[in-house]
Amino acid sequence: MMTTRADTGSSGDGDGSGDGSGEGGVQVTVLLFAECRERSGQTETTLDLPHANTTATHILQAIAAKFPSLEPVLGTVVLAVNEEYVEKDAKLELKPSDTIALIPPISGIISESCLLPTVTLLWCDGMAWYDMTRAG
Amino acid sequence: MEDKDDGGGAPNDLVQVTEASIDEAKLLQWVRAGCTGGTSVFIGTTRDHFQGRRVKTLFYEAYKSMALKEMSKLAAQMREQWQDIYRIAIVHRIGEVPVGEASVMIVASGAHRRGAMHAVEYCIDTLKQTVPIWKKEIYDDGDATWKSNCPTCSQHAHAKHAHTSTHAHRDTAPSASS
């Protein structure tokens, strides 16, 4: 599905400039905890994003594409980037050194602005993202 | 990355995430001084039942480095709201916490009781909303569930919460600890 990281060690998924800025893609670290860790079977992974300028919503969509087993719980997951919570619509400019964490519900943490209303299934052919949940 | 138990930071704020059992007497001793007229304490303990089911044990998991950061922020927020606080200790245990043992202890001391009492209440309510530590209830029958302390907040249709909100559902007691 997504292209794997380049052998040269440069960041990104090969369809961008590789410097992690602007229109280029970026590869970030993702930490998984609690129910997300159990469902995915991983504590830490990498995620290739087609654009460094992105939002929490898009990141969660990419995670749903990589880990379909997480899809049922991603609606209540909040993201942290470099140990700071981010709102779902906040504009992010990610760097290869950034660490994203999936934060499942702690308690009354749920904020409407931090939730996905639905998780959209996306597919990427290495050039663009296609929304598979919409017909046509 | 170094995996510290302590949050560092302000000298009169002690924040810790540890697998060791909580030394309650030591924390109480540390937080009190000649200048403190009032000391308030909250201890969260693993309870042996939840909604009619017998709880065998609780298991806590943390995003440790972020949890320590959030606990330090929380201590700063307590001081901002109650200026006569002297010392604050926030200690959360992770890993298995058997029935009857403490999972979290919050202590605050201050010149007067009112600030210390309110600060501790604010602290536990906010901690359960903002500090990335998760709890899994393991029952006698072998079943286990990751708990959200406030199930009503998991519903989309529920009232809005912000990460900085101090609102908490205290009346439903929906898990085998406070």
From TrEMBL, chain A:
Keywords: Nucleotide-binding
Pfam families: ThiS
SUPFAM superfamilies: MoaD/ThiS
Gene Ontology MF annotations: nucleotide binding
InterPro entries documented for this protein: Beta-grasp_dom_sf, MOCS2A, Mopterin_synth/thiamin_S_b, ThiS/MoaD-like
Region (Disordered), start-end ranges: 1-22
Positions in coiled-coil regions: none
Superkingdom of source: Eukaryota
Alphabetized Gene3D superfamilies for the sequence: 3.10.20.30
Compositional bias segments (type: Gly residues): 11-22
Gene Ontology cellular component annotations, sorted alphabetically: molybdopterin adenylyltransferase complex
GO biological process, one term: Mo-molybdopterin cofactor biosynthetic process
Presence of keyword Nucleotide-binding: yes
Protein's UniProt name: MOCS2A
Organism expressing this protein natively: Salpingoeca rosetta (strain ATCC 50818 / BSB-021)
Lineage, broadest ranks: Eukaryota, Choanoflagellata, Craspedida, Salpingoecidae, Salpingoeca
Automatic annotation (TrEMBL), chain B:
Pfam families the record matches: MoaE
Enzyme Commission identifier(s): 2.8.1.12
Gene3D superfamilies: Molybdopterin biosynthesis MoaE subunit (3.90.1170.40)
Record's keyword terms, sorted: Cytoplasm, Molybdenum cofactor biosynthesis, Transferase
Reactions catalysed according to its record: 2 [molybdopterin-synthase sulfur-carrier protein]-C-terminal-Gly-aminoethanethioate + cyclic pyranopterin phosphate + H2O = molybdopterin + 2 [molybdopterin-synthase sulfur-carrier protein]-C-terminal Gly-Gly + 2 H(+)
The keyword Glycosyltransferase is assigned to this record: no
Domain of life, source organism: Eukaryota
Any GO BP annotation: Mo-molybdopterin cofactor biosynthetic process
InterPro entries to which the protein is assigned, alphabetical: MoaE_sf, MOCS2B_euk, Mopterin_biosynth_MoaE
Pathway field: Cofactor biosynthesis; molybdopterin biosynthesis
UniProt-annotated binding residues for substrate: 112-113, 128, 135-137
Recorded GO CC terms: molybdopterin synthase complex
Record family assignment: Belongs to the MoaE family. MOCS2B subfamily.
Record-given protein name: Molybdopterin synthase catalytic subunit
Lineage: Eukaryota, Choanoflagellata, Craspedida, Salpingoecidae, Salpingoeca
